[in-house]
Amino acid sequence: MIVLALAGSTQAATRPRYGGVLRVEIRESFESVDPPDSGTGLADLLGAFSITRWEAGRRASYAADNNAAGGRPFVDAVEVQMGRTLREQSIDLEVGKADVIQLGAGESRRGVGGRKMWVSAPVRIVALAFGPRVEDARIREGLALAVDRTAILNVLLQKQGEISGALLPQWISGYAFLFPSDRDLGRARALVAAASPGGRNLSLGVEDASLRAMADRVALNARDAGLAVTTATQTNASDVRLLEVEVAAGDPARALAAIAAALGLTAPARMESIEAVYNAERAMLEGFRVVPLFHLPDVYGAGPRVKGAAGISPLGQWRFENVWLEGDRP
After folding, report:
1. Mean confidence (pLDDT) of the chain
2. Residue 101: what pLDDT?
3. What is the pTM of this model?
4. Is residue 327 within 8 Å of residue 315, measured between CB atoms?
5. Distance CA 317, CA 41 (A)
6. Dihedrals φ, ψ of 198, to 5°?
7. Which class is 5-99+303-325 in CATH?
8. How many CA atoms, within 13 angstroms, populate the side-chain half-sphere of residue 309?
9. What is the dihedral of CA 211, 212, 215, 220, to 10 degrees?
């Protein structure tokens, strides 16, 4: 059974009330002309809320739908600020300018003033994806075996999340533990030594700033195996990318198909049993074109005036219609 964790403090028993504007800050910056209608927290608002304002990359406003299928949300509106750094979000939450902020795995343990935490099940995959120029499978496997997942989990992620060599999280598939994820530096060195010296220099692209420290650690681990890896802002020219992919469904077949599409992999048209899903995932990971590293939860911090049920589902979907606000706006 998947349990949505609510950490940090217990909520006082208060009576639900209508009204107010829920102020949300996130890291992502959606630059599209039209607001997203799928695959994001903003899209999760649709149904209970309707869009009233869209400033691409900056701000979005939503109004409560009086005719929502689940009943009218308690809050009157939701205002979302995009492209906010962790520092900016943390300060705004502390001084009362934000009610809900988006945190990365590990960041929730670095101090947001003891605020409430909404933590989903592990719903994000962090993985290495190799480009076509890295043709030698020994180089790909060598880097995969060199990464010290345990050190990254303990230090950078503050033990929040799960080490995994699988695409699907254990709670969805039940078989993730079958995919190896242990570090084997001896074999990594042997693989790299047997490869052409010209293939030992790699560029590692990382677009999400929250993953930069992890990319630097991967580059350091790679050096121990005899690889020279340089990190840079994500570009299409990178030999390998460190990226994050969202798990969009709780059904194993649907989830794997969506992950495959996001990673540019080929999934079977039909996967009618868990054995078929497992075989499909194993085929995707053969050759080390994609190397899963971690499964991470979605984490949000909520301010003291936010009351009610946790505002995210186990899959990390926004459920802001379930919360209400207490007290006057600062």
Report:
1. 89
2. 95
3. 0.84
4. no
5. 6
6. -65, -15
7. alpha beta
8. 11
9. -140
Burial of 299: CB neighbours in 10 Å, binned 0-12, 13-18, 19+:
buried
Residue 74 contacts residue 16 (beta carbons within 8 Å): yes
Give residue limits of the domains in the chain: 5-99+303-325, 122-296
DSSP state of 273: S
Confidence of residue 7 (pLDDT cuts 50, 70, 90): very low
Q: Please determine, for residue 190, whether its predicted confidence score (pLDDT) is greater than 90.
A: yes
Q: How far apart are CA 94 and CA 105, in angstroms?
A: 19
The topology (CATH level 3) of 122-296 is Dipeptide-binding Protein; domain 3 (3.10.105)
Query: Please, which residues bridge with residue 81 across strands?
Result: 25, 59
Q: How far apart are CA 207 and CA 215, in angstroms?
A: 10
pLDDT recorded at residue 38: 81
Nearest to 253 by CA among 272, 236, 240, 266: 272
> Which three-class secondary structure string do you get for 224-244?
HCCCEEEEEECCCCCCEEEEE
Closest to 312 in 3D by CA, of 173, 118, 139? 118
140 within 8 A of 291, measured Cβ to Cβ: yes
Residue 260 neighbours by CB under 8 Å, 6+ apart: 167, 266, 267, 284
Q: Which residue has the tokens 């790299």?
A: 192
